[in-house]
């Protein structure tokens, strides 16, 4: 139910079963789907039925399962002001602070501790602001928030990995004035463009690709703090590699996918398997393993990702580490589940062992190549202007089931739209309207299925807003 003004949560719908142990998920809806794998992992390892309570910031028409808390005081204020629900994104650190300060969440944790003796918290990204981890008996199933924060600093990555990964030529600047002056002297050498970023940047925030000096001055001249600028590498491929760090030696490499990047720095989705040649994929695996070992030496334990670009000559350049789960971690979990023997540990079980025991289980196996003809593609549909939804896009099939059906040849291919916000909501710029997932046996099938999924999302907003809020074409 939606809560009144006296409660510190926006929405609450949960009831505890006395015969079940519970863990908490704290993060956005986009990775809530991973909790089924965590649930199975904890039940298997502890020999006790587990379930989860999701603590989300997302404002939706309705929620996909019970045991959900929504903490979003800004949404309550907007709902009072506008008389309707408003869907928007909250920065991960802000949300972690809100959750940590919530009396409802703290009381829930104490209730679970009294019953269970311990509480696990599953997160998409570990951040220092999630101070619930300091409560005795509470354990984050992921890396340390402080260590993750250090590794998500792009300047730290460049310094620590200069002997480990093939870095792009870059310059570090103490402030905007020095950055503008430095860039001015590099255009004759860096003729294809200059990538501008601050130490903490993600999803197109605090970074951009510039093709002239005037563009840099307009976009960054007013910003404070340090910058680094790097030479833009014209390239054909944007591969991403997902892995798990268990210690300073053992790093599991899950798989490689090709990212879809718009405007130089905005992630929109991924396609698996990668079209890169086998030798290049093997080189990417080994570079990522070396990066993971460097992270392991610093105390990092858990899932991480590395992004790269590959130019027309087949040269690999390191772009960044994401010291967290990736946007396509769910698809990677489904891929491993169908590619590996039944008793082989999956991605979330590997993370559990890495975090809790600094090791991998003995029966860990990496996939050496893509699974037969299995292909998948995802597309994240974000709005660039405010829009109003007129209908919900229902989930026709569970994503995990879709993967199993395609692998078993029970269906040739399929597409689903997940995490749609629902009907009669105002959706703010930068917010996910929904996510499209297509699974099949060929890339040609995925192309058409993704197009159909995007069309469903377009039809869920009013015509008068569709033309200005949604990019034309299929979003590629």
UniProtKB/TrEMBL annotation:
It comes from Desulfonatronum thiosulfatophilum. The lineage of its organism: Bacteria, Pseudomonadati, Thermodesulfobacteriota, Desulfovibrionia, Desulfovibrionales. It comes from the Bacteria. Pfam families: ATP-grasp_3 (PF02655). Gene3D superfamilies: ATP-grasp fold, B domain. The keyword Metal-binding does not apply. GO terms for molecular function: ATP binding; metal ion binding. Keywords: ATP-binding, Nucleotide-binding. This is ATP-grasp domain-containing protein. Residues 157-356 form the ATP-grasp domain.
């Amino acid at each position: 139910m939606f809560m009144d003004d006296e409660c510190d949560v926006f929405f609450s719908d949960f009831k505890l079963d006395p015969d079940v142990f519970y863990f908490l998920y704290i993060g956005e809806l986009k990775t809530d789907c991973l909790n089924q794998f965590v649930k199975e992992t904890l039940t298997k390892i502890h020999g006790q039925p587990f379930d989860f309570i999701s603590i989300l910031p997302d404002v939706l028409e309705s929620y996909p399962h019970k045991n959900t808390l929504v903490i979003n005081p800004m949404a309550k204020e907007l709902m009072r002001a506008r008389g309707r629900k408003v869907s928007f994104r909250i920065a991960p650190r802000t949300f972690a602070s809100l959750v940590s300060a919530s009396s409802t969440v703290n009381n829930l944790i104490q209730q679970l501790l009294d019953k269970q003796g311990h509480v696990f918290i599953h997160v998409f990204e570990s951040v220092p602001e999630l101070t619930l981890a300091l409560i005795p008996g509470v354990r984050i199933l992921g890396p340390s928030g402080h260590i993750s924060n250090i590794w998500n600093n792009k300047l730290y990555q460049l310094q620590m990995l200069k002997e480990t990964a093939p870095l792009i030529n870059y310059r570090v600047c103490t402030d905007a004035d020095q950055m503008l002056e430095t860039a001015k002297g590099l255009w004759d050498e860096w003729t294809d463009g200059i990538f501008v970023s601050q130490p903490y940047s993600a999803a197109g925030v605090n970074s951009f690709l510039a093709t002239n000096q005037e563009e840099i001055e307009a976009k960054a001249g007013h910003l404070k703090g340090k910058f680094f600028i790097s030479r833009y590498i014209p390239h054909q491929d944007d591969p991403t590699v997902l892995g798990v760090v268990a210690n300073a030696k053992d790093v599991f490499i899950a798989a490689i996918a090709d990212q879809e990047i718009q405007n130089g720095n905005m992630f929109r989705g991924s396609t698996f398997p990668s079209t890169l040649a086998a030798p290049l994929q093997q080189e990417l695996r080994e570079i990522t393993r070396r990066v993971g070992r460097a992270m392991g030496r610093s105390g990092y334990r858990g899932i991480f990702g590395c992004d790269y670009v590959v130019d027309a000559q087949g040269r690999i350049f390191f772009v960044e580490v994401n010291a967290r789960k990736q946007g396509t971690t769910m698809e990677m979990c489904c891929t491993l589940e169908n590619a590996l023997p039944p008793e082989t540990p999956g991605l979330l079980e590997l993370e559990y062992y890495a975090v809790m025991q600094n090791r991998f289980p003995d029966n860990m196996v990496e996939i050496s190549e893509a699974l037969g003809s299995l292909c998948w593609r995802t597309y994240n549909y974000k709005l660039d202007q405010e829009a109003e939804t007129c209908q919900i896009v229902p989930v026709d099939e569970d994503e995990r089931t879709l993967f199993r059906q395609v692998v078993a040849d029970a269906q040739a291919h399929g597409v689903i739209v997940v995490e749609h916000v629902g009907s009669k909501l105002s959706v703010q710029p930068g917010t996910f309207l929904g996510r499209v997932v297509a699974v099949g046996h060929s890339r040609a099938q995925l192309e058409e299925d993704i197009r159909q999924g995007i069309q469903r999302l377009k039809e869920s907003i009013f015509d008068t807003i569709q033309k200005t809020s949604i990019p034309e074409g299929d979003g590629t």
